[in-house]
Amino acid sequence: MIIPEDLKYQIKKNFKKGKVVSLTGAGISAESGIPTFRGKGGLWEKYDPEIFANTEGLISVLRNNPRSLANFITEFYSTLLSSQPNPAHLSLVELEKMGILSSIITQNIDNLHQESGSQNVIELHGNSFRIICMGCQKKACLNKERIKELLALIKKSWSSYISLLRIISRYFPKCKCGKRFRIDIVLFGELLPQDELSRAYKELDNCHTLLIIGSSLVVYPAAELPLYAKQRGARLIEINSQPSALSELCDYRIIGRASEIVPEVLNILKG
Ligand code: OAD
Ligand code: ZN
Fold this sequence. Notes:
Elements: H1 5-14, E1 20-24, H2 27-30, H3 43-46, H4 49-52, H5 55-64, H6 66-81, H7 87-97, E2 101-106, H8 112-116, E3 121-123, E4 126-133, E5 139-141, H9 144-157, H10 161-171, E6 181-185, H11 194-205, E7 209-213, H12 225-231, E8 235-240, E9 252-255, H13 258-270
Parallel strand pairs: 1-2, 1-7, 2-3, 7-8, 8-9
Antiparallel strand pairs: 4-5, 4-6
Helix pairs in contact: 5-6, 6-9, 7-13, 9-10
The structure holds 2'-O-acetyl adenosine-5-diphosphoribose and zinc ion.
Zinc ion binds near residues 135, 136 and 175.
């Protein structure tokens, strides 16, 4: 048993119908084969986020080091394409079906909550499988088949700045309004989608328990949400393989893998 008896009792007592919200980060998808951003072998260990998570940085790397951008796109999307929801994602689906979980506020851009079947997902940092027009903000899906084509084309015909630019332009076309589409994820220094952020705050206004899963809680404004919930009287439960920046703020901490612990929480509530 990973979860001690007294905490099991607290879970039974505190998980009120429709009053639980989950805040998730990269750790929930680690066991789906997606390395966390800041962990060993994570994306930000290999690629400097000041360059690869930044619009100006991406434009300059396209011009000055297109091979490195081609590698980045290929590695980023290959990992996402080969990932599958794990038991932690699936347990959250069950908790929503049982009427206990009212929403998931996620920092993840991997679409795994939606893919596993969760309905009420608030995406703070966007979604890698969507594009957005830089002019009118229209959104469109960039599905797995299109991404596979994009990666195959990069592999086959990439040779220079111009050819990479041509390939990218094909998958991030111009909108009817005249501006170009880009990937719909929040890069460093950009504002979060304000409609999603206000939905998140609204959820936390009604939340009795905030279940935080697999986030280092170092990226703001997402990391403000636990404090906001706590100030409104919510209990904070953290599931993480190691302490986060805000572990001290949490009422209960469960150290371990999300894919083992979230199903155990579900079993406690089912039993
Ligand atoms: P991080 O990579 O910063 O943190 C991942 C957390 O997951 C760490 O606290 C790990 O201890 C924990 N962890 C790792 N494996 C786990 C497992 N199997 N089970 C449970 N916990 C585990 O990821 P985030 O906190 O999500 O921004 O990062 C926040 C944002 O920073 C991301 O959304 C991303 C990044 O820059 C954008 O994409 C815009
Ligand atoms: Zn447009």
